[in-house]
Write a structure and sequence with these properties.
Layout: H1 2-19, H2 23-46, E1 52-53, E2 56-57, H3 58-83, H4 86-92, H5 95-100, H6 106-112, H7 120-136, H8 143-173, H9 180-188, H10 199-208, H11 216-224, H12 228-255
Antiparallel strand pairs: 1-2
Helix pairs in contact: 2-3, 3-7, 3-8, 3-11, 8-11, 8-12
């Protein structure tokens, strides 16, 4: 509960800062809408020539894009404002020093204390596309499918946070190493079902860099229902990556000597 109150307080302060520059909202909406429209247009063009792509129908693709956009919105709202600049501001400029003396988890403060509320427009757009996909599907999702989707979306969000923490933790050992370009490029692959890729890349995106859990698996579960084994695998992946992120953070802190020391 304490961490939830801190998260709410941080979001409130970030929101007050954001509304001071209201013109940013217009540009954020335009950028989010343009990017999403481009992805949807590509899908619609493909389905003017085919009924399915790698076994996925147009409705399934729309649900996939909506789910991907929703999780992307959560990432850019709550995770990126903290961790995308961690090697520079946290390690080299000493911001982490201040977090270490605070009466709260340094991992939480470093990864979730700040937010970018205007980016929630991506979540709204994602929900809109998700609703569109459900509306054009042959049959509405079952109650079990909705519950499975919710559980897997939460699991995918946790995996997203954990991967971002692990990437940031590299700064403890190599402060000048920048892998953000690689990470964001790999993230773009999440807007496509893993079935469209060759087997080696599909295995990589499922078991090594689990982008399949971000959007493909929840989307399939929503329209077709999920097996208990799928939900268990998703929850296990979230718990496992979260634990690895926590342990890696602790190992990094033991190595960290402080920018001001």
């Amino acid at each position: 509960m304490k961490l939830l109150r801190l998260l709410a307080a941080g979001f409130s302060m970030s929101l007050r800062r954001s509304v001071a520059f209201r013109v940013n909202l217009v540009f954020d909406v335009l950028l989010a809408f343009t990017g999403l429209s481009t992805a949807i247009a590509a899908v619609l063009i493909v389905f003017t020539r085919a009924d399915t792509l790698a076994g996925w129908s147009k409705a399934e693709f729309l649900v996939l894009i909506g789910t991907y956009q929703l999780i992307t919105g959560l990432r850019t709202t709550f995770i990126d404002p903290n961790l995308s600049w961690f090697p520079e501001s946290g390690i080299r400029n000493g911001k982490l020093d201040g977090y270490l003396v605070q009466p709260a988890s340094s991992l939480f403060l470093s990864s979730l204390s700040q937010s970018s509320p205007l980016q929630l427009i991506q979540v709204v757009l994602g929900v809109g596309v998700l609703s569109w996909g459900i509306g054009v599907a042959d049959r509405p999702p079952s109650a079990g499918g909705v519950v499975s989707w919710l559980v897997l979306v939460v699991a995918g969000t946790v995996v997203t946070w954990a991967l971002s923490v692990l990437l940031a933790c590299l700064a403890f050992w190599a402060p000048k190493l920048q892998l953000d370009v690689f990470y964001h490029s790999a993230w773009q692959l999440g807007r496509y079902p893993t079935d469209v890729f060759a087997r080696p890349l599909r295995v990589l995106l499922t078991y090594v860099f689990p982008m399949a859990l971000i959007a493909s698996v929840p989307s399939s579960a929503l329209l077709h229902g999920a097996q208990p084994s799928t939900i268990l695998a998703g929850v296990t992946a979230a718990a496992g990556t979260g634990a690895v992120a926590f342990l890696t953070w602790q190992a990094g802190l033991r190595r960290y000597t402080g920018a001001t020391s």
